[in-house]
Amino acid sequence: MSPITITAAILVFVIILVGVAYAYHSAENAKIEKNRKASMYSNRIRRIEEVMSTLPLPYLGHGLGEFLMSEKLDALESIKNLSLKEHNSSIEERIANTKGEIAEFLDKLVQEQHKSVNITSEAQAQQLHNTFHECHRLALASFKSSRLSKVDASTLINHIKERLVIITYELFSYSAYNAQQVGKYTLAIHYYERAIDELRKHNASHTYDAFIQKLKSRIARAEEQQKTQTTQETPENESSSLVNKLDEFVEEDDTWKKKNVYD
């Protein structure tokens, strides 16, 4: 065998080895990427399920619940499309179950969407605030991935912001009512005034005029009751962290709107 033939054979062998190694690494990289995407979709499903198990059903109206369910279904379908053997065994069943859950959810929502939810503690209000912040993050992620239009994203985010404002209002109102019931009228007035302050900060479109007027009437009533009282109470600095988080959310929302206003 001539030296040229030997050299050519060696070159062919090396090329084949390089090709096999490249194919192997490409297949491994593709598998890693599929697993990364599957983990990302699974994480989205977990977050959505946590949100829906935390929020009372009346808070899932105005398209929020439908959005969350559609996001869950999209994530399940995406996992299915990855064609991973470790997921295929149960994914079809989960997709079918989720489609059934959507129909059941919509029926329940019609029955309960107008029911009131009483906010009776700062811990409860804080948990709801955190959950709505998670809804906000999910909506933004969906918009950035083009699953949600800018109009629909804006509608959802506005609804979330309104719910956050109302939760803060209801917490202050509940605290004021309790203080008023036990004769702590100064404290009650303090909470009513804080509720008014929060509503006014987000009332550019006069959405909360009726709430503010109702609170003013309650303040007038508490002031009448206060005239017969001789003891003084010191207002408590309750819910400051809740208010601060609401302000931070509004700032983030304004930033998002400014970034997308010319898109």
Describe the structure.
Residues 222-247 are annotated as: Disordered. It is a single chain. This protein has 263 residues and is mostly helical. The chain folds into 2 domains: 1-116; 118-263, Alpha Horseshoe (Serine Threonine Protein Phosphatase 5, Tetratricopeptide repeat), CATH 1.25.40. The chain has helices spanning 3-54, 64-81, 85-112, 122-144, 150-181, 185-201, 209-226, 240-260.
> Roughly how many Å apart are the termini?
69 Å
The largest β sheet comes out as: none
- CATH architecture assignment of the largest domain: Alpha Horseshoe
CATH C-level label of the largest domain: Mainly Alpha
* Cα radius of gyration in angstroms: 28 Å
Beta-strand content estimate: under 5%
Task: State the CATH topology of the largest domain.
Answer: Serine Threonine Protein Phosphatase 5, Tetratricopeptide repeat
Low-confidence blocks of residues: none
Give the structural class.
mainly alpha
Give the helix proportion (percent range): over 70%
The total tally of domains equals: 2
Please state the overall shape, judged from the principal axes of the Cα atoms: elongated
Count the helices. How many? 8
Give the integer mean of the pLDDT values: 83
Region (Disordered): 222-247
